[in-house]
Design goal:
Helix content is about 35%, strand content about 20%. The protein has about 500 residues and is α/β, with parallel strands linked by helices. The C terminus is likely disordered. The structure holds S-adenosyl-L-homocysteine, iron/sulfur cluster and FE3-S4 cluster (F3S). Iron/sulfur cluster binds next to α6.
Length: about 500
């Protein structure tokens, strides 16, 4: 884990070292000088604005970007009127890309007002060659572009971008490197994501992630545990272990290990009260994992288990490597071991060739499982994936109609599931003061249900026993009945 180093003491006289992370500390020191010079020119502290699109893994990456920007002397701004603006992009669906193109138009105008502004783009969308072509051709005001594999080199690339006028564009096709011990600025003081692996080897036929995030690489368990111990020492009560497919964690390590084993070790870290993880691919979910979860006092009673489709035929076309029956059997096994577990999922509507019968199979699984919550997506064609070339792309009006029916069913079931908790007393980790009503705070139960309750800033980051007074569909209004000073058990 990164421990504050005094960048002013890093010697810049001998050139950058080759090995990491020392090389990046060198460039952080260089950036620090450049930022100081800028401060002299502007007569105020330079600012940065970082915007994240996409998943939790991108959110964690952005904390690393912010960590470096803060260490080199930038102050965080809360709008794009900043001296350095970075977008950490996502490309999982077309609308994620569209958002970035839209915002770039706005940034172009902002840069006209602040000509010294530097604009940077990174993340998954930058791994697509067409995106880079388009940027080079039509977006000359972007100063720095890098991808997912070389994010650890951010300080080095930033240093170059601060020195030169021409754009710095550096995209790698792949990496097997994992660089530890770079600065991180966490968004929340009391909870944190922790990467346990990077990349994905599954190649679901609709999905672009394996192409933009590269092959699966697991971090060493000792590095993960060290990071979690440091987080606990820093006041973090809840960790979310992150990976595209956490259930295959450790298979390629030497010596190999398993996700279940890692969880056993995380459980032993003192000071951590709640452990979450995502995402679990159903094909790799082991009995050992169910056993570890069942016996755990800290692992939250929540499993995100993406279904994608309920039709065995479509699942085969999606290359998911389980069928409807196997998914339902897995759910039954999990529920037998942990009757109180909350199950959530991801579902895609309108995969190429999806018929009304296929869609009804999805509705059937949704009803049989009774998900506590589900993210529903309209299929988005991603260039370069096998599904993009498949016959039978479903017409938009048909997809929209199915999507509407699915959403209604998912919401009806979720409300029913949540409603059953009304009147219960549950531990709630308070996460923030409510954005709409400052007399309320908002927190989460172990099973991930959201609860609003009367409170104040001082309650943030603590776990309270809350009576769930009223259910409003997906969330609750509650009232504190007690404060838990001992570590609280996730969702029990
Ligand atoms: N690794 C995770 C998912 C990462 S992407 C897993 O396998 O579960 C998050 C979700 O986006 C996926 O579960 C899927 O439902 C959705 N998704 C991915 N590609 C998509 C596409 N081309 N169109 C629509 N939804 C997509
Ligand atoms: Fe995409 Fe499938 Fe990998 Fe998830 S498991 S990231 S859906 S390829
Ligand atoms: Fe998007 Fe990349 Fe995550 S494509 S969903 S930000 S892994």
């Amino acid at each position: 884990m990164y421990h504050e180093i005094d960048l002013d003491k890093v010697s810049l006289s001998q050139g950058p070292p080759q090995e990491e992370p020392g090389r990046q500390y060198y460039f952080m020191a260089e950036c620090r000088q450049a930022v100081k010079e800028l401060e002299g020119k502007l007569g105020r502290r330079p600012t940065f604005f970082a915007q994240t699109f996409g998943c939790q893994m991108n959110a964690r990456d952005s904390e690393k970007l912010s960590g470096i920007l803060t260490s080199v002397g930038y102050a965080r701004a809360d709008s794009e009127e900043a001296d350095f603006v970075i977008y950490n992009t996502c490309t999982v669906r077309e609308n994620a890309n569209n958002k970035v193109w839209g915002r770039l138009g706005y940034l172009n105008a902002a840069k006209k007002r602040l000509p010294h502004m530097k604009i940077a783009l990174c993340g998954c969308m930058m791994q697509e060659p067409e995106v880079i072509e388009k940027l080079k051709k039509s977006y000359p005001f972007v100063s720095l572009v890098f991808g997912t594999h070389n994010i650890y080199k951010f300080a080095e690339l930033l240093s170059l971008a601060l020195k030169q006028e021409e754009a710095v564009i550096d995209i790698w096709q792949e990496t097997d490197k994992i660089v530890e011990d770079l600065p991180i600025e966490r968004k929340y003081p009391f909870k944190s994501g922790v990467n346990i692996m990077f990349g994905c080897n599954n190649f679901c036929s609709y999905c672009i992630v394996p192409y933009v995030r590269g092959r699966e690489r697991s971090r060493r368990p000792e590095d993960i545990i060290r990071e979690i111990q440091d987080l606990a020492g820093d006041g973090v009560a809840e960790v979310m272990l992150l990976g595209q497919n956490v259930n295959s964690y450790g298979k390629n390590l030497d010596p190999p290990t398993t996700f279940a084993d890692l969880l056993r070790e995380v459980e032993r870290v003192e000071g951590i009260s709640r452990i979450r993880f995502m995402t679990s691919h159903p094909k790799d979910l082991s009995d050992e994992l169910i056993e570890v979860m069942g016996a755990s006092k800290k692992i939250c009673r929540h499993l995100h288990l993406p279904l994608q489709s309920g039709s065995s035929r479509i699942l085969k076309e999606m290359n998911r490597r389980y069928d409807k029956g196997q998914y339902l059997a897995l759910v039954a096994k999990i529920r037998r071991a942990m009757p109180d577990i909350a199950l959530t999922t991801d579902i895609i509507v309108g995969f190429p060739g999806e018929t009304e019968e296929d869609f009804l199979e999805t509705m059937d699984v949704v009803r049989k499982v009774g998900f506590e919550s589900a993210f529903t997506f309209i299929y988005s064609k991603r260039t370069g994936t096998p599904a993009a070339a498949m016959e039978g792309q479903v017409p938009e009006d048909v997809v929209k109609e199915r999507f509407g029916r699915l959403l209604e069913e998912v919401q009806r079931i979720a409300a029913e599931k949540a409603g059953a908790f009304t009147g219960r007393i549950e531990p709630v980790l308070v996460e923030e003061v409510n954005g709409q009503d400052p007399r309320l705070v908002t927190g989460r139960m172990g099973n991930n249900f959201v609860v609003h309750l009367p409170g104040n800033e001082g309650m943030v980051g603590k776990i309270f026993e809350v009576e769930l007074k009223e259910c409003r569909g997906f969330y609750f209004y509650g009232e504190v009945v007690g404060f838990s000073c001992i570590p609280i058990l996730g969702g029990n």
